[in-house]
Protein backbone atom coordinates (compact mmCIF):
# COMPACT_ATOMS: atom_id res chain seq x y z
CA UNK A 1 0.00 0.00 0.00
CA UNK A 2 2.81 2.33 0.89
CA UNK A 3 4.49 1.54 -2.38
CA UNK A 4 1.32 2.34 -4.35
CA UNK A 5 0.96 5.67 -2.55
CA UNK A 6 4.55 6.51 -3.36
CA UNK A 7 3.97 5.89 -7.09
CA UNK A 8 0.85 8.04 -7.14
CA UNK A 9 2.71 10.91 -5.51
CA UNK A 10 5.53 10.58 -8.03
CA UNK A 11 3.03 10.60 -10.92
CA UNK A 12 1.32 13.70 -9.53
CA UNK A 13 4.63 15.50 -9.16
CA UNK A 14 5.60 14.48 -12.70
CA UNK A 15 2.32 15.81 -14.16
CA UNK A 16 2.75 19.01 -12.18
CA UNK A 17 6.28 19.33 -13.57
CA UNK A 18 4.99 18.91 -17.16
CA UNK A 19 2.30 21.52 -16.59
CA UNK A 20 4.73 24.02 -15.11
CA UNK A 21 7.85 23.57 -17.18
CA UNK A 22 6.62 22.51 -20.61
CA UNK A 23 6.27 25.73 -22.66
CA UNK A 24 3.46 26.20 -25.18
CA UNK A 25 4.28 26.23 -28.88
CA UNK A 26 4.08 29.72 -30.48
CA UNK A 27 5.29 31.51 -27.39
CA UNK A 28 8.49 33.27 -26.34
CA UNK A 29 10.58 31.32 -23.83
CA UNK A 30 13.83 31.90 -22.00
CA UNK A 31 16.85 29.72 -22.68
CA UNK A 32 20.56 29.47 -21.96
CA UNK A 33 23.38 29.13 -24.50
CA UNK A 34 25.16 25.85 -23.79
CA UNK A 35 27.35 25.75 -26.86
CA UNK A 36 28.34 27.72 -30.03
CA UNK A 37 29.38 25.61 -33.02
CA UNK A 38 29.19 25.59 -36.83
CA UNK A 39 27.70 29.10 -37.00
CA UNK A 40 24.88 28.18 -34.66
CA UNK A 41 24.09 28.58 -30.99
CA UNK A 42 22.74 25.57 -29.08
CA UNK A 43 20.18 26.76 -26.53
CA UNK A 44 18.64 24.87 -23.61
CA UNK A 45 15.04 26.00 -23.23
CA UNK A 46 14.29 23.72 -20.23
CA UNK A 47 12.55 20.40 -19.76
CA UNK A 48 15.51 18.75 -21.38
CA UNK A 49 14.74 20.53 -24.66
CA UNK A 50 17.42 22.01 -26.76
CA UNK A 51 17.32 23.91 -30.07
CA UNK A 52 19.63 25.51 -32.61
CA UNK A 53 19.62 29.18 -33.84
CA UNK A 54 21.83 30.70 -36.54
CA UNK A 55 24.26 33.23 -35.10
CA UNK A 56 23.17 35.89 -37.63
CA UNK A 57 19.83 36.07 -35.85
CA UNK A 58 21.67 37.54 -32.86
CA UNK A 59 23.39 40.26 -34.90
CA UNK A 60 22.21 43.80 -35.63
CA UNK A 61 22.28 44.94 -39.31
CA UNK A 62 25.88 45.43 -40.39
CA UNK A 63 27.32 44.14 -37.06
CA UNK A 64 28.76 40.76 -35.94
CA UNK A 65 26.82 38.57 -33.50
CA UNK A 66 27.67 38.99 -29.84
CA UNK A 67 26.72 35.73 -28.12
CA UNK A 68 28.62 33.47 -25.69
CA UNK A 69 28.09 30.24 -23.74
CA UNK A 70 26.12 30.92 -20.60
CA UNK A 71 24.17 33.88 -22.02
CA UNK A 72 20.48 33.90 -21.31
CA UNK A 73 18.31 34.73 -24.33
CA UNK A 74 14.68 34.77 -25.32
CA UNK A 75 13.63 32.67 -28.29
CA UNK A 76 10.38 31.85 -30.05
CA UNK A 77 9.25 28.20 -29.72
CA UNK A 78 7.82 27.02 -33.03
CA UNK A 79 7.59 23.31 -32.17
CA UNK A 80 8.52 21.27 -29.13
CA UNK A 81 10.28 18.54 -31.13
CA UNK A 82 11.33 18.00 -34.72
CA UNK A 83 12.47 14.85 -36.55
CA UNK A 84 15.82 14.97 -34.77
CA UNK A 85 14.18 15.33 -31.37
CA UNK A 86 15.21 18.96 -31.05
CA UNK A 87 13.04 22.00 -30.31
CA UNK A 88 12.45 24.32 -33.28
CA UNK A 89 13.28 27.82 -31.97
CA UNK A 90 13.96 31.29 -33.49
CA UNK A 91 15.67 34.30 -32.01
CA UNK A 92 14.47 36.51 -34.89
CA UNK A 93 10.82 35.70 -34.28
CA UNK A 94 11.29 36.32 -30.59
CA UNK A 95 12.84 39.70 -31.29
CA UNK A 96 9.96 40.49 -33.67
CA UNK A 97 7.32 39.68 -31.08
CA UNK A 98 9.22 41.64 -28.48
CA UNK A 99 9.65 44.54 -30.88
CA UNK A 100 5.95 44.63 -31.84
CA UNK A 101 4.95 44.82 -28.18
CA UNK A 102 7.41 47.66 -27.64
CA UNK A 103 6.46 49.48 -30.85
CA UNK A 104 2.73 49.27 -30.21
CA UNK A 105 3.27 50.88 -26.84
CA UNK A 106 5.45 53.62 -28.37
CA UNK A 107 2.88 54.24 -31.14
CA UNK A 108 0.07 54.56 -28.60
CA UNK A 109 2.12 57.06 -26.56
CA UNK A 110 3.42 58.87 -29.73
CA UNK A 111 6.98 58.23 -28.67
CA UNK A 112 10.00 58.10 -30.94
CA UNK A 113 11.58 54.72 -31.71
CA UNK A 114 15.16 53.90 -32.65
CA UNK A 115 16.08 52.08 -35.81
CA UNK A 116 18.52 51.77 -38.68
CA UNK A 117 17.98 52.00 -42.44
CA UNK A 118 19.32 48.77 -43.95
CA UNK A 119 17.82 48.42 -47.43
CA UNK A 120 16.27 50.19 -50.42
CA UNK A 121 12.88 49.21 -51.87
CA UNK A 122 10.54 50.72 -54.42
CA UNK A 123 9.31 54.08 -53.16
CA UNK A 124 11.58 54.23 -50.12
CA UNK A 125 13.70 52.23 -47.66
CA UNK A 126 13.48 49.41 -45.08
CA UNK A 127 14.23 50.15 -41.44
CA UNK A 128 15.10 47.68 -38.65
CA UNK A 129 13.32 48.75 -35.47
CA UNK A 130 15.05 46.25 -33.21
CA UNK A 131 13.46 43.12 -34.65
CA UNK A 132 10.54 44.54 -36.65
CA UNK A 133 10.98 45.78 -40.22
CA UNK A 134 9.31 49.10 -41.15
CA UNK A 135 8.86 51.01 -44.41
CA UNK A 136 10.33 54.51 -44.74
CA UNK A 137 8.77 56.37 -47.73
CA UNK A 138 11.20 58.46 -49.80
CA UNK A 139 9.24 61.61 -48.98
CA UNK A 140 9.72 61.01 -45.26
CA UNK A 141 13.53 60.70 -45.28
CA UNK A 142 14.32 64.42 -44.98
CA UNK A 143 12.71 67.86 -45.14
CA UNK A 144 14.27 68.22 -48.60
CA UNK A 145 14.65 65.57 -51.32
CA UNK A 146 17.65 63.31 -50.66
CA UNK A 147 19.69 62.38 -53.72
CA UNK A 148 22.14 60.04 -51.92
CA UNK A 149 20.92 58.09 -48.90
CA UNK A 150 24.22 56.19 -48.55
CA UNK A 151 25.47 58.14 -45.53
CA UNK A 152 22.22 57.34 -43.68
CA UNK A 153 22.41 53.56 -44.14
CA UNK A 154 23.11 51.52 -41.01
CA UNK A 155 23.06 54.49 -38.64
CA UNK A 156 20.98 54.18 -35.52
CA UNK A 157 18.65 57.16 -35.40
CA UNK A 158 15.18 58.11 -34.15
CA UNK A 159 11.99 57.64 -36.18
CA UNK A 160 8.33 58.49 -35.70
CA UNK A 161 5.74 55.76 -36.32
CA UNK A 162 3.09 57.08 -38.71
CA UNK A 163 1.01 53.91 -39.05
CA UNK A 164 1.17 50.26 -37.99
CA UNK A 165 -0.96 47.13 -38.48
CA UNK A 166 0.22 44.04 -36.52
CA UNK A 167 -2.18 41.68 -38.24
CA UNK A 168 -0.75 42.56 -41.65
CA UNK A 169 2.75 43.16 -40.33
CA UNK A 170 2.92 46.72 -41.73
CA UNK A 171 4.76 49.61 -40.10
CA UNK A 172 5.34 53.03 -41.72
CA UNK A 173 7.84 55.41 -40.13
CA UNK A 174 9.15 58.93 -40.75
CA UNK A 175 12.54 60.50 -40.22
CA UNK A 176 11.31 63.83 -41.59
CA UNK A 177 8.84 64.29 -38.73
CA UNK A 178 11.72 64.08 -36.26
CA UNK A 179 13.76 66.63 -38.22
CA UNK A 180 10.81 69.02 -38.56
CA UNK A 181 10.09 68.81 -34.86
CA UNK A 182 13.74 69.47 -34.11
CA UNK A 183 13.81 72.37 -36.55
CA UNK A 184 10.60 73.77 -35.08
CA UNK A 185 12.13 73.71 -31.61
CA UNK A 186 15.28 75.34 -32.95
CA UNK A 187 13.24 77.96 -34.84
CA UNK A 188 11.18 78.74 -31.76
CA UNK A 189 14.35 79.17 -29.72
CA UNK A 190 15.94 81.51 -32.30
CA UNK A 191 12.74 83.47 -32.92
CA UNK A 192 12.33 83.99 -29.17
CA UNK A 193 15.64 85.87 -29.22
CA UNK A 194 14.61 88.14 -32.15
CA UNK A 195 12.72 91.40 -31.82
CA UNK A 196 11.02 93.42 -34.55
CA UNK A 197 13.37 96.22 -35.56
CA UNK A 198 16.58 94.24 -34.87
CA UNK A 199 19.37 94.52 -37.46
CA UNK A 200 20.96 91.10 -38.00
CA UNK A 201 23.36 89.41 -40.40
CA UNK A 202 22.14 86.58 -42.60
CA UNK A 203 23.17 84.45 -45.55
CA UNK A 204 21.17 84.42 -48.78
CA UNK A 205 19.94 80.84 -49.04
CA UNK A 206 17.59 80.94 -52.02
CA UNK A 207 16.38 83.48 -54.58
CA UNK A 208 12.93 83.55 -56.20
CA UNK A 209 11.11 86.00 -58.46
CA UNK A 210 9.38 87.65 -55.50
CA UNK A 211 12.30 87.80 -53.08
CA UNK A 212 15.07 85.92 -51.26
CA UNK A 213 15.22 83.57 -48.28
CA UNK A 214 17.88 84.57 -45.76
CA UNK A 215 19.27 82.13 -43.16
CA UNK A 216 19.51 83.88 -39.78
CA UNK A 217 21.41 81.02 -38.15
CA UNK A 218 18.94 78.16 -38.20
CA UNK A 219 15.78 79.98 -39.15
CA UNK A 220 14.89 81.49 -42.54
CA UNK A 221 13.33 84.89 -43.14
CA UNK A 222 11.78 86.25 -46.33
CA UNK A 223 13.30 89.38 -47.83
CA UNK A 224 10.65 90.56 -50.29
CA UNK A 225 11.78 92.21 -53.49
CA UNK A 226 9.97 95.45 -52.55
CA UNK A 227 11.95 95.65 -49.31
CA UNK A 228 15.40 95.22 -50.88
CA UNK A 229 15.90 98.82 -52.02
CA UNK A 230 14.02 102.10 -52.24
CA UNK A 231 14.43 101.99 -56.02
CA UNK A 232 12.54 99.63 -58.34
CA UNK A 233 14.07 96.13 -58.38
CA UNK A 234 12.88 94.00 -61.29
CA UNK A 235 14.47 90.78 -59.98
CA UNK A 236 16.25 90.02 -56.67
CA UNK A 237 19.27 88.65 -58.56
CA UNK A 238 20.05 92.25 -59.59
CA UNK A 239 21.39 93.01 -56.12
CA UNK A 240 21.76 89.62 -54.34
CA UNK A 241 23.52 86.32 -54.94
CA UNK A 242 23.21 82.95 -53.18
CA UNK A 243 25.72 82.57 -50.34
CA UNK A 244 26.14 86.32 -49.89
CA UNK A 245 26.11 87.70 -46.34
CA UNK A 246 23.73 90.63 -45.95
CA UNK A 247 22.60 92.87 -43.12
CA UNK A 248 18.83 92.96 -42.77
CA UNK A 249 16.24 94.35 -40.40
CA UNK A 250 13.51 92.22 -38.81
CA UNK A 251 10.28 93.88 -39.98
CA UNK A 252 7.69 91.45 -38.66
CA UNK A 253 7.59 88.18 -36.72
CA UNK A 254 4.55 85.91 -36.76
CA UNK A 255 4.79 83.97 -33.50
CA UNK A 256 2.18 81.42 -34.60
CA UNK A 257 3.54 80.51 -38.02
CA UNK A 258 7.16 81.38 -37.16
CA UNK A 259 7.39 83.44 -40.34
CA UNK A 260 9.88 86.30 -40.37
CA UNK A 261 9.71 89.26 -42.77
CA UNK A 262 12.99 91.04 -43.45
CA UNK A 263 14.01 94.30 -45.09
CA UNK A 264 17.21 95.87 -46.39
CA UNK A 265 16.00 99.29 -47.46
CA UNK A 266 14.80 100.01 -43.91
CA UNK A 267 18.46 100.30 -42.89
CA UNK A 268 18.97 103.12 -45.42
CA UNK A 269 17.74 106.70 -45.48
CA UNK A 270 14.32 107.12 -47.11
CA UNK A 271 14.86 109.29 -50.21
CA UNK A 272 11.22 110.44 -50.05
CA UNK A 273 12.01 112.50 -46.95
CA UNK A 274 13.83 115.03 -49.16
CA UNK A 275 11.75 114.82 -52.36
CA UNK A 276 9.95 118.15 -51.98
CA UNK A 277 13.22 119.97 -51.31
CA UNK A 278 15.13 118.31 -54.15
CA UNK A 279 12.39 118.35 -56.77
CA UNK A 280 10.21 121.48 -56.37
CA UNK A 281 7.10 121.72 -58.52
CA UNK A 282 7.69 123.33 -61.90
CA UNK A 283 11.37 122.40 -62.05
CA UNK A 284 12.85 120.32 -64.87
CA UNK A 285 15.06 117.30 -64.16
CA UNK A 286 16.73 114.53 -66.11
CA UNK A 287 15.48 111.02 -65.40
CA UNK A 288 15.59 107.46 -66.69
CA UNK A 289 12.56 105.54 -67.97
CA UNK A 290 12.21 102.40 -65.81
CA UNK A 291 8.84 101.00 -66.85
CA UNK A 292 6.24 101.59 -69.55
CA UNK A 293 2.52 100.83 -69.17
CA UNK A 294 -0.64 101.51 -71.17
CA UNK A 295 -1.37 104.58 -69.06
CA UNK A 296 2.10 106.16 -69.02
CA UNK A 297 5.79 105.76 -68.23
CA UNK A 298 7.64 105.63 -64.90
CA UNK A 299 10.75 107.80 -64.70
CA UNK A 300 13.39 107.43 -61.99
CA UNK A 301 14.56 110.83 -60.77
CA UNK A 302 17.07 109.28 -58.36
CA UNK A 303 17.47 105.82 -56.78
CA UNK A 304 14.26 105.18 -54.85
CA UNK A 305 12.25 108.06 -56.31
CA UNK A 306 10.08 107.40 -59.33
CA UNK A 307 7.45 109.57 -60.93
CA UNK A 308 4.72 108.85 -63.46
CA UNK A 309 4.43 110.64 -66.77
CA UNK A 310 0.77 110.08 -67.61
CA UNK A 311 0.01 109.40 -71.26
CA UNK A 312 -1.83 112.73 -71.44
CA UNK A 313 1.37 114.57 -70.40
CA UNK A 314 3.70 112.89 -72.88
CA UNK A 315 3.16 114.80 -76.11
CA UNK A 316 1.42 117.93 -77.30
CA UNK A 317 0.38 116.31 -80.56
CA UNK A 318 0.30 112.49 -80.12
CA UNK A 319 -2.93 112.05 -78.19
CA UNK A 320 -3.91 108.42 -78.76
CA UNK A 321 -0.49 106.78 -79.05
CA UNK A 322 0.91 104.10 -76.72
CA UNK A 323 3.66 105.52 -74.45
CA UNK A 324 6.04 102.88 -75.82
CA UNK A 325 6.00 104.68 -79.17
CA UNK A 326 7.14 107.93 -77.57
CA UNK A 327 9.79 106.72 -75.08
CA UNK A 328 11.69 103.48 -74.47
CA UNK A 329 12.91 101.71 -71.33
CA UNK A 330 16.26 103.01 -69.98
CA UNK A 331 15.97 106.16 -72.12
CA UNK A 332 17.08 109.39 -70.45
CA UNK A 333 14.48 112.15 -70.70
CA UNK A 334 13.87 115.66 -69.37
CA UNK A 335 10.70 115.91 -67.28
CA UNK A 336 8.92 118.63 -65.33
CA UNK A 337 7.59 118.06 -61.80
CA UNK A 338 3.84 118.76 -61.90
CA UNK A 339 2.67 117.50 -58.51
CA UNK A 340 4.11 115.82 -55.39
CA UNK A 341 2.14 113.68 -52.91
CA UNK A 342 4.61 112.69 -50.19
CA UNK A 343 2.03 110.74 -48.18
CA UNK A 344 1.21 108.49 -51.12
CA UNK A 345 4.83 108.61 -52.38
CA UNK A 346 3.73 109.82 -55.80
CA UNK A 347 5.27 112.33 -58.17
CA UNK A 348 3.40 113.44 -61.30
CA UNK A 349 5.71 114.37 -64.14
CA UNK A 350 5.26 115.97 -67.52
CA UNK A 351 7.28 115.31 -70.65
CA UNK A 352 5.56 117.72 -73.02
CA UNK A 353 5.97 120.61 -70.57
CA UNK A 354 9.72 120.61 -71.24
CA UNK A 355 8.95 121.66 -74.82
CA UNK A 356 7.11 124.76 -76.03
CA UNK A 357 3.46 124.42 -76.94
CA UNK A 358 3.59 124.01 -80.75
CA UNK A 359 0.30 125.93 -81.12
CA UNK A 360 1.83 128.90 -79.31
CA UNK A 361 4.89 128.73 -81.57
CA UNK A 362 2.69 128.49 -84.66
CA UNK A 363 0.56 131.44 -83.55
CA UNK A 364 3.71 133.54 -83.13
CA UNK A 365 5.25 132.58 -86.46
CA UNK A 366 2.07 132.34 -88.55
CA UNK A 367 -0.35 135.21 -87.88
CA UNK A 368 -3.70 135.31 -89.67
CA UNK A 369 -3.21 135.80 -93.40
CA UNK A 370 0.03 133.77 -93.57
CA UNK A 371 0.20 131.33 -96.44
CA UNK A 372 1.16 127.73 -95.55
CA UNK A 373 1.58 124.47 -97.42
CA UNK A 374 1.05 120.94 -96.14
CA UNK A 375 -0.02 117.39 -96.91
CA UNK A 376 -3.64 116.29 -96.68
CA UNK A 377 -3.59 113.97 -93.63
CA UNK A 378 -7.29 113.20 -93.42
CA UNK A 379 -10.55 113.94 -95.21
CA UNK A 380 -13.76 114.11 -93.20
CA UNK A 381 -17.37 115.04 -93.90
CA UNK A 382 -16.72 118.57 -92.65
CA UNK A 383 -13.36 119.38 -94.21
CA UNK A 384 -9.66 118.64 -94.76
CA UNK A 385 -6.90 118.22 -92.17
CA UNK A 386 -3.56 119.56 -93.37
CA UNK A 387 -0.26 118.55 -91.76
CA UNK A 388 1.82 121.55 -90.61
CA UNK A 389 5.14 122.07 -88.78
CA UNK A 390 5.86 120.32 -85.43
CA UNK A 391 3.31 117.53 -86.08
CA UNK A 392 0.27 119.76 -85.74
CA UNK A 393 -2.71 119.88 -88.11
CA UNK A 394 -4.81 122.68 -89.49
CA UNK A 395 -8.36 122.28 -90.74
CA UNK A 396 -9.92 123.64 -93.93
CA UNK A 397 -13.68 123.69 -93.43
CA UNK A 398 -15.94 122.82 -96.37
CA UNK A 399 -17.01 126.43 -96.60
CA UNK A 400 -13.39 127.52 -97.04
CA UNK A 401 -12.57 125.31 -100.01
CA UNK A 402 -14.07 127.30 -102.90
CA UNK A 403 -15.83 130.58 -103.68
CA UNK A 404 -17.86 129.11 -106.50
CA UNK A 405 -18.55 125.46 -105.60
CA UNK A 406 -20.47 123.95 -102.75
CA UNK A 407 -18.10 122.56 -100.13
CA UNK A 408 -19.45 119.01 -100.60
CA UNK A 409 -18.58 119.23 -104.29
CA UNK A 410 -15.24 120.98 -103.88
CA UNK A 411 -13.88 118.38 -101.40
CA UNK A 412 -14.23 115.67 -104.05
CA UNK A 413 -11.21 117.15 -105.82
CA UNK A 414 -8.84 116.30 -102.91
CA UNK A 415 -7.08 113.03 -101.92
CA UNK A 416 -4.98 112.01 -98.90
CA UNK A 417 -1.33 112.82 -99.57
CA UNK A 418 -2.06 115.82 -101.81
CA UNK A 419 0.07 118.89 -101.15
CA UNK A 420 -2.23 121.86 -100.54
CA UNK A 421 -1.62 125.56 -100.05
CA UNK A 422 -3.88 127.56 -97.74
CA UNK A 423 -4.10 130.76 -95.72
CA UNK A 424 -4.19 130.88 -91.91
CA UNK A 425 -7.46 132.44 -90.80
CA UNK A 426 -7.41 131.76 -87.02
CA UNK A 427 -5.23 130.08 -84.34
CA UNK A 428 -6.91 129.05 -81.05
CA UNK A 429 -4.06 128.03 -78.71
CA UNK A 430 -6.32 126.94 -75.81
CA UNK A 431 -8.44 124.65 -77.99
CA UNK A 432 -5.39 123.65 -80.07
CA UNK A 433 -7.14 124.52 -83.32
CA UNK A 434 -5.81 126.09 -86.49
CA UNK A 435 -8.32 127.24 -89.11
CA UNK A 436 -7.17 127.42 -92.73
CA UNK A 437 -8.75 128.59 -95.96
CA UNK A 438 -7.94 127.45 -99.48
CA UNK A 439 -10.33 129.82 -101.22
CA UNK A 440 -8.69 132.85 -99.56
CA UNK A 441 -5.45 132.18 -101.47
CA UNK A 442 -6.54 134.28 -104.48
CA UNK A 443 -8.40 136.88 -102.48
CA UNK A 444 -12.19 137.33 -102.29
CA UNK A 445 -13.53 137.99 -105.82
CA UNK A 446 -16.88 139.13 -104.41
CA UNK A 447 -15.23 141.72 -102.17
CA UNK A 448 -13.08 142.87 -105.03
CA UNK A 449 -16.08 143.07 -107.39
CA UNK A 450 -18.27 145.05 -105.02
CA UNK A 451 -15.47 147.03 -103.43
CA UNK A 452 -16.75 150.37 -104.77
CA UNK A 453 -20.44 149.49 -104.71
CA UNK A 454 -22.72 150.70 -101.97
CA UNK A 455 -26.34 150.20 -101.19
CA UNK A 456 -28.34 152.53 -103.48
CA UNK A 457 -25.65 152.59 -106.18
CA UNK A 458 -26.74 152.32 -109.81
CA UNK A 459 -24.69 149.74 -111.71
CA UNK A 460 -24.88 148.21 -115.17
CA UNK A 461 -25.31 144.45 -115.38
CA UNK A 462 -25.47 141.96 -118.23
CA UNK A 463 -28.35 139.53 -118.64
CA UNK A 464 -27.02 135.93 -118.60
CA UNK A 465 -30.23 133.89 -118.37
CA UNK A 466 -34.01 134.31 -118.70
CA UNK A 467 -36.15 132.36 -116.24
CA UNK A 468 -39.86 132.28 -115.45
CA UNK A 469 -39.38 133.91 -112.07
CA UNK A 470 -36.96 136.59 -113.22
CA UNK A 471 -33.61 137.10 -114.91
CA UNK A 472 -30.04 136.13 -113.99
CA UNK A 473 -27.49 138.90 -114.40
CA UNK A 474 -23.76 139.27 -113.95
CA UNK A 475 -21.69 142.11 -112.54
CA UNK A 476 -17.89 141.92 -112.61
CA UNK A 477 -18.09 138.13 -112.79
CA UNK A 478 -20.52 137.87 -109.83
CA UNK A 479 -23.95 136.39 -110.54
CA UNK A 480 -27.17 137.82 -109.14
CA UNK A 481 -30.84 137.25 -109.72
CA UNK A 482 -33.56 139.89 -110.26
CA UNK A 483 -37.00 138.65 -109.37
CA UNK A 484 -40.00 139.21 -111.64
CA UNK A 485 -41.50 141.76 -109.19
CA UNK A 486 -38.31 143.86 -109.42
CA UNK A 487 -38.15 143.96 -113.25
CA UNK A 488 -40.29 147.12 -113.55
CA UNK A 489 -42.34 149.66 -111.64
CA UNK A 490 -45.16 148.96 -114.10
CA UNK A 491 -46.74 145.57 -113.46
CA UNK A 492 -47.40 145.15 -117.18
CA UNK A 493 -43.68 145.41 -117.82
CA UNK A 494 -42.67 142.81 -115.19
CA UNK A 495 -42.14 140.22 -117.93
CA UNK A 496 -38.76 138.40 -118.06
CA UNK A 497 -39.26 137.61 -121.75
CA UNK A 498 -38.92 141.26 -122.70
CA UNK A 499 -35.19 140.91 -121.95
CA UNK A 500 -32.63 138.99 -123.96
CA UNK A 501 -29.35 137.35 -122.94
CA UNK A 502 -26.59 139.89 -123.43
CA UNK A 503 -28.74 142.95 -122.71
CA UNK A 504 -27.07 145.62 -120.60
CA UNK A 505 -29.40 147.17 -118.07
CA UNK A 506 -29.06 149.65 -115.28
CA UNK A 507 -30.15 148.45 -111.84
CA UNK A 508 -30.18 149.79 -108.32
CA UNK A 509 -28.28 147.92 -105.53
CA UNK A 510 -30.76 147.20 -102.77
CA UNK A 511 -28.61 144.90 -100.61
CA UNK A 512 -25.02 143.58 -100.29
CA UNK A 513 -24.97 140.14 -98.57
CA UNK A 514 -21.34 139.18 -97.91
CA UNK A 515 -22.34 135.88 -96.29
CA UNK A 516 -24.32 134.57 -99.25
CA UNK A 517 -22.08 136.54 -101.62
CA UNK A 518 -25.04 138.02 -103.44
CA UNK A 519 -26.08 141.50 -104.53
CA UNK A 520 -29.70 142.50 -104.18
CA UNK A 521 -30.61 144.26 -107.51
CA UNK A 522 -33.83 145.90 -108.74
CA UNK A 523 -34.89 147.71 -111.92
CA UNK A 524 -38.08 148.76 -110.15
CA UNK A 525 -36.10 150.43 -107.35
CA UNK A 526 -34.01 152.29 -109.92
CA UNK A 527 -37.14 153.60 -111.68
CA UNK A 528 -38.70 154.71 -108.40
CA UNK A 529 -35.50 156.45 -107.40
CA UNK A 530 -35.30 158.22 -110.77
CA UNK A 531 -38.93 159.30 -110.44
CA UNK A 532 -38.32 160.68 -107.00
CA UNK A 533 -35.27 162.57 -108.18
CA UNK A 534 -37.17 164.04 -111.16
CA UNK A 535 -39.99 165.20 -108.95
CA UNK A 536 -37.59 166.88 -106.57
CA UNK A 537 -35.77 168.63 -109.45
CA UNK A 538 -38.52 169.68 -111.82
CA UNK A 539 -41.61 170.03 -109.72
CA UNK A 540 -43.62 168.62 -106.95
CA UNK A 541 -46.73 166.60 -106.70
CA UNK A 542 -48.62 169.71 -105.55
CA UNK A 543 -47.63 172.03 -108.51
CA UNK A 544 -50.32 170.76 -110.83
CA UNK A 545 -47.87 169.52 -113.44
CA UNK A 546 -48.49 166.02 -114.64
CA UNK A 547 -45.96 163.25 -114.13
CA UNK A 548 -45.60 162.99 -117.91
CA UNK A 549 -44.73 166.71 -118.13
CA UNK A 550 -42.13 166.38 -115.36
CA UNK A 551 -40.50 163.32 -116.85
CA UNK A 552 -40.63 164.87 -120.30
CA UNK A 553 -38.87 167.97 -119.00
CA UNK A 554 -36.34 165.79 -117.21
CA UNK A 555 -35.68 163.80 -120.34
CA UNK A 556 -35.41 166.98 -122.42
CA UNK A 557 -32.98 168.37 -119.91
CA UNK A 558 -30.92 165.21 -120.27
CA UNK A 559 -30.95 165.62 -124.04
CA UNK A 560 -29.76 169.22 -123.79
Automatic annotation (TrEMBL):
InterPro entries: NA-bd_OB-fold, Ribos_protein_bS1-like, Ribosomal_bS1, Ribosomal_protein_S1-like, S1_domain. Pfam families: S1 (PF00575). One of its GO terms (biological process) is translation. Residues 26-92, 110-176, 197-265, 282-352, 369-439, 456-524 form the S1 motif domain. Gene3D superfamilies: Nucleic acid-binding proteins (2.40.50.140). It comes from the Bacteria. The keyword RNA-binding applies. One of its GO terms (cellular component) is cytosolic small ribosomal subunit. One of its GO terms (molecular function) is mRNA binding. Keywords: Repeat, Ribonucleoprotein, Ribosomal protein, RNA-binding. SMART domains: S1. Belongs to the bacterial ribosomal protein bS1 family. NCBIfam families: PRK06299.1-2 (NF004952), PRK06299.1-5 (NF004955), rpsA (TIGR00717). Binds mRNA; thus facilitating recognition of the initiation point. It is needed to translate mRNA with a short Shine-Dalgarno (SD) purine-rich sequence. This is 30S ribosomal protein S1. It comes from Rhodovulum adriaticum (Rhodopseudomonas adriatica).
